[in-house]
Amino acid sequence: MEKKTRIIAFANNKGGSGKTTSCANIGYSLAAMGKKVLLIDGDMQLNLSLSYFTEDEVLEMAASEKNLYHAIRKQDDLTDYVIHTPYENLDLIPSSMLMSGMEYELFTKWQREFILKGCLKNIKAANTYDYILIDAPPTLGGWVMNILCASDYVIMPVEASPWGLFGVANMFEFLEDVRRINENLELLGIAITKVDARKNYYKQTCETLRSADNVHVFDNIIRVDSEVEWAQDDSKPILVHKAKARSAGEYMELAKEIDRTWQ
Asked: In the predicted model, what is the mean pLDDT of residues 31-45?
Protein backbone atom coordinates (compact mmCIF):
# COMPACT_ATOMS: atom_id res chain seq x y z
CA MET A 1 0.00 0.00 0.00
CA GLU A 2 1.31 3.43 -0.96
CA LYS A 3 2.25 5.54 2.04
CA LYS A 4 -0.04 8.51 2.58
CA THR A 5 0.42 11.31 5.08
CA ARG A 6 -2.70 11.94 7.15
CA ILE A 7 -3.13 15.28 8.89
CA ILE A 8 -5.17 15.17 12.09
CA ALA A 9 -6.11 18.22 14.16
CA PHE A 10 -6.81 17.89 17.87
CA ALA A 11 -9.44 20.54 18.50
CA ASN A 12 -11.99 21.56 21.12
CA ASN A 13 -13.03 25.11 21.91
CA LYS A 14 -13.26 24.26 25.61
CA GLY A 15 -10.02 24.48 27.57
CA GLY A 16 -9.03 21.65 29.91
CA SER A 17 -10.35 18.90 27.64
CA GLY A 18 -7.04 17.02 27.54
CA LYS A 19 -6.46 18.10 23.94
CA THR A 20 -2.74 18.82 24.12
CA THR A 21 -2.05 15.86 26.41
CA SER A 22 -3.86 13.57 24.00
CA CYS A 23 -2.02 14.98 20.98
CA ALA A 24 1.36 14.58 22.69
CA ASN A 25 0.83 11.07 23.98
CA ILE A 26 -1.01 9.66 20.98
CA GLY A 27 1.79 11.10 18.85
CA TYR A 28 4.42 9.33 20.92
CA SER A 29 2.42 6.09 20.94
CA LEU A 30 2.12 6.09 17.15
CA ALA A 31 5.87 6.71 16.87
CA ALA A 32 6.53 3.83 19.27
CA MET A 33 4.44 1.66 16.94
CA GLY A 34 6.90 2.48 14.15
CA LYS A 35 4.90 5.26 12.49
CA LYS A 36 6.65 8.43 11.40
CA VAL A 37 4.98 11.35 13.18
CA LEU A 38 5.26 15.13 12.95
CA LEU A 39 3.70 17.17 15.75
CA ILE A 40 2.76 20.81 15.17
CA ASP A 41 2.30 23.06 18.19
CA GLY A 42 -0.39 25.52 17.13
CA ASP A 43 -1.01 27.08 20.55
CA MET A 44 0.68 30.12 22.10
CA GLN A 45 0.78 28.27 25.46
CA LEU A 46 3.57 26.05 24.05
CA ASN A 47 2.35 23.01 25.99
CA LEU A 48 2.82 20.52 23.16
CA SER A 49 6.45 21.65 22.82
CA LEU A 50 6.84 21.42 26.62
CA SER A 51 5.73 17.79 26.44
CA TYR A 52 9.05 16.96 24.75
CA PHE A 53 11.52 19.69 25.66
CA THR A 54 12.48 21.56 28.82
CA GLU A 55 11.12 25.02 29.51
CA ASP A 56 14.47 26.64 28.68
CA GLU A 57 14.66 24.80 25.36
CA VAL A 58 11.06 25.68 24.46
CA LEU A 59 11.52 29.36 25.32
CA GLU A 60 14.65 29.41 23.18
CA MET A 61 12.68 27.94 20.26
CA ALA A 62 9.88 30.43 20.85
CA ALA A 63 12.31 33.35 20.76
CA SER A 64 14.01 32.16 17.57
CA GLU A 65 12.96 32.65 13.95
CA LYS A 66 12.37 28.90 13.53
CA ASN A 67 8.88 28.40 14.88
CA LEU A 68 5.36 28.15 13.52
CA TYR A 69 4.52 31.81 14.02
CA HIS A 70 7.32 33.05 11.78
CA ALA A 71 6.63 30.37 9.16
CA ILE A 72 2.96 31.38 8.91
CA ARG A 73 3.81 35.09 8.93
CA LYS A 74 6.25 34.60 6.03
CA GLN A 75 4.13 31.88 4.38
CA ASP A 76 7.24 29.69 4.31
CA ASP A 77 7.59 26.02 3.50
CA LEU A 78 7.47 24.33 6.93
CA THR A 79 10.08 21.74 5.97
CA ASP A 80 12.84 23.99 7.30
CA TYR A 81 11.09 24.45 10.66
CA VAL A 82 11.07 20.78 11.69
CA ILE A 83 12.97 19.91 14.89
CA HIS A 84 13.86 16.36 15.89
CA THR A 85 12.65 15.29 19.32
CA PRO A 86 14.76 12.99 21.51
CA TYR A 87 12.62 10.08 20.30
CA GLU A 88 12.77 7.96 17.17
CA ASN A 89 10.17 8.61 14.44
CA LEU A 90 8.96 11.78 16.15
CA ASP A 91 9.52 15.37 15.00
CA LEU A 92 8.07 18.71 16.09
CA ILE A 93 7.38 22.17 14.72
CA PRO A 94 7.44 24.38 17.84
CA SER A 95 5.19 27.30 18.66
CA SER A 96 5.75 30.83 19.92
CA MET A 97 3.99 33.09 22.40
CA LEU A 98 3.64 35.49 19.47
CA MET A 99 0.89 33.14 18.23
CA SER A 100 -1.39 35.28 20.39
CA GLY A 101 -1.29 37.80 17.54
CA MET A 102 -1.99 35.27 14.79
CA GLU A 103 -5.58 36.40 14.20
CA TYR A 104 -4.30 39.89 13.43
CA GLU A 105 -1.53 38.53 11.18
CA LEU A 106 -4.02 36.50 9.16
CA PHE A 107 -6.60 39.25 8.81
CA THR A 108 -5.02 41.04 5.85
CA LYS A 109 -3.71 37.93 4.04
CA TRP A 110 -5.08 36.76 0.69
CA GLN A 111 -6.95 33.42 1.02
CA ARG A 112 -6.03 33.47 4.69
CA GLU A 113 -7.89 30.24 5.52
CA PHE A 114 -5.41 28.25 3.46
CA ILE A 115 -2.05 29.65 4.60
CA LEU A 116 -1.14 26.72 6.87
CA LYS A 117 -2.23 24.29 4.16
CA GLY A 118 0.14 26.00 1.74
CA CYS A 119 2.99 25.93 4.25
CA LEU A 120 2.44 22.17 4.73
CA LYS A 121 2.08 21.36 1.04
CA ASN A 122 5.62 20.10 0.46
CA ILE A 123 5.79 18.10 3.71
CA LYS A 124 2.52 16.35 2.90
CA ALA A 125 3.50 15.71 -0.73
CA ALA A 126 6.81 14.15 0.33
CA ASN A 127 4.93 11.46 2.30
CA THR A 128 7.79 11.27 4.79
CA TYR A 129 5.35 11.06 7.68
CA ASP A 130 2.49 8.67 8.33
CA TYR A 131 0.81 11.23 10.57
CA ILE A 132 0.94 14.98 11.10
CA LEU A 133 -0.82 15.86 14.36
CA ILE A 134 -1.73 19.50 15.01
CA ASP A 135 -2.58 20.84 18.46
CA ALA A 136 -5.13 23.64 18.00
CA PRO A 137 -5.77 26.34 20.62
CA PRO A 138 -9.10 26.29 22.51
CA THR A 139 -10.80 28.92 20.36
CA LEU A 140 -13.01 29.07 17.26
CA GLY A 141 -11.29 31.84 15.34
CA GLY A 142 -9.51 32.29 12.05
CA TRP A 143 -6.39 30.44 13.17
CA VAL A 144 -8.31 27.30 14.13
CA MET A 145 -10.16 27.62 10.81
CA ASN A 146 -6.70 27.63 9.19
CA ILE A 147 -5.68 24.47 11.06
CA LEU A 148 -8.87 22.65 10.09
CA CYS A 149 -8.57 23.72 6.45
CA ALA A 150 -5.10 22.15 6.43
CA SER A 151 -6.33 18.92 8.05
CA ASP A 152 -7.91 15.73 6.76
CA TYR A 153 -9.42 14.71 10.08
CA VAL A 154 -10.33 16.07 13.51
CA ILE A 155 -10.11 14.31 16.86
CA MET A 156 -12.13 16.06 19.57
CA PRO A 157 -11.08 15.23 23.14
CA VAL A 158 -13.98 15.73 25.56
CA GLU A 159 -13.57 15.75 29.33
CA ALA A 160 -15.92 13.45 31.25
CA SER A 161 -17.10 16.14 33.67
CA PRO A 162 -20.26 18.18 34.30
CA TRP A 163 -18.89 20.94 32.07
CA GLY A 164 -17.14 18.67 29.58
CA LEU A 165 -19.98 18.81 27.07
CA PHE A 166 -20.23 22.58 27.29
CA GLY A 167 -19.45 24.01 23.87
CA VAL A 168 -19.51 20.70 21.97
CA ALA A 169 -22.51 21.88 19.95
CA ASN A 170 -20.60 25.06 19.03
CA MET A 171 -17.66 22.91 17.91
CA PHE A 172 -19.94 20.82 15.68
CA GLU A 173 -21.37 23.99 14.11
CA PHE A 174 -17.86 25.32 13.52
CA LEU A 175 -16.85 22.06 11.80
CA GLU A 176 -19.84 22.43 9.49
CA ASP A 177 -18.70 25.97 8.64
CA VAL A 178 -15.20 24.68 7.87
CA ARG A 179 -16.60 21.95 5.60
CA ARG A 180 -17.96 24.64 3.31
CA ILE A 181 -14.38 25.38 2.28
CA ASN A 182 -12.71 22.05 3.18
CA GLU A 183 -15.41 19.60 2.18
CA ASN A 184 -13.16 16.57 2.80
CA LEU A 185 -12.67 17.30 6.50
CA GLU A 186 -13.91 14.41 8.67
CA LEU A 187 -14.52 14.15 12.39
CA LEU A 188 -12.46 11.02 13.04
CA GLY A 189 -13.91 10.66 16.51
CA ILE A 190 -14.40 11.92 20.03
CA ALA A 191 -11.89 10.80 22.66
CA ILE A 192 -13.33 10.79 26.18
CA THR A 193 -10.68 11.99 28.64
CA LYS A 194 -10.19 12.62 32.37
CA VAL A 195 -12.57 9.80 33.21
CA ASP A 196 -13.43 8.93 36.80
CA ALA A 197 -15.55 5.81 36.28
CA ARG A 198 -16.97 6.12 39.82
CA LYS A 199 -18.82 9.30 38.89
CA ASN A 200 -22.25 9.21 37.26
CA TYR A 201 -21.46 12.05 34.88
CA TYR A 202 -18.93 9.81 33.11
CA LYS A 203 -21.82 7.55 32.03
CA GLN A 204 -23.93 10.57 31.16
CA THR A 205 -21.14 12.00 29.00
CA CYS A 206 -20.74 8.70 27.15
CA GLU A 207 -24.48 8.25 26.62
CA THR A 208 -24.93 11.81 25.35
CA LEU A 209 -22.02 11.61 22.91
CA ARG A 210 -22.84 8.12 21.65
CA SER A 211 -26.44 9.14 20.98
CA ALA A 212 -25.35 11.92 18.60
CA ASP A 213 -25.98 11.24 14.90
CA ASN A 214 -22.98 10.49 12.69
CA VAL A 215 -20.49 10.95 15.53
CA HIS A 216 -17.94 8.25 16.28
CA VAL A 217 -16.80 7.90 19.89
CA PHE A 218 -13.58 5.95 20.38
CA ASP A 219 -13.90 2.79 22.45
CA ASN A 220 -10.72 3.47 24.42
CA ILE A 221 -11.09 6.09 27.14
CA ILE A 222 -8.45 7.98 29.13
CA ARG A 223 -8.88 7.86 32.90
CA VAL A 224 -7.68 10.41 35.41
CA ASP A 225 -4.05 9.62 36.28
CA SER A 226 -1.73 11.81 38.36
CA GLU A 227 1.25 10.29 36.54
CA VAL A 228 0.31 12.35 33.49
CA GLU A 229 1.03 15.57 35.39
CA TRP A 230 4.35 14.20 36.65
CA ALA A 231 5.27 13.27 33.08
CA GLN A 232 4.45 16.80 31.94
CA ASP A 233 6.56 18.20 34.75
CA ASP A 234 9.36 15.96 33.47
CA SER A 235 8.83 17.15 29.85
CA LYS A 236 8.30 13.56 28.72
CA PRO A 237 5.46 11.50 27.24
CA ILE A 238 3.77 9.27 29.81
CA LEU A 239 5.12 6.11 28.14
CA VAL A 240 8.67 7.37 28.65
CA HIS A 241 8.08 8.76 32.14
CA LYS A 242 6.39 5.61 33.47
CA ALA A 243 5.62 2.91 30.92
CA LYS A 244 3.53 0.90 33.42
CA ALA A 245 1.23 3.80 34.28
CA ARG A 246 -2.42 3.11 33.53
CA SER A 247 -2.71 6.10 31.23
CA ALA A 248 0.37 4.97 29.27
CA GLY A 249 -1.46 1.80 28.29
CA GLU A 250 -4.66 3.69 27.59
CA TYR A 251 -2.98 6.15 25.22
CA MET A 252 -1.26 3.28 23.42
CA GLU A 253 -4.56 1.44 22.96
CA LEU A 254 -6.25 4.63 21.74
CA ALA A 255 -3.40 5.19 19.25
CA LYS A 256 -3.83 1.63 17.97
CA GLU A 257 -7.57 2.20 17.60
CA ILE A 258 -6.92 5.37 15.60
CA ASP A 259 -4.36 3.65 13.38
CA ARG A 260 -6.74 0.74 12.67
CA THR A 261 -9.06 3.21 10.92
CA TRP A 262 -7.06 2.74 7.72
CA GLN A 263 -6.27 -0.97 7.99
From this structure: 95
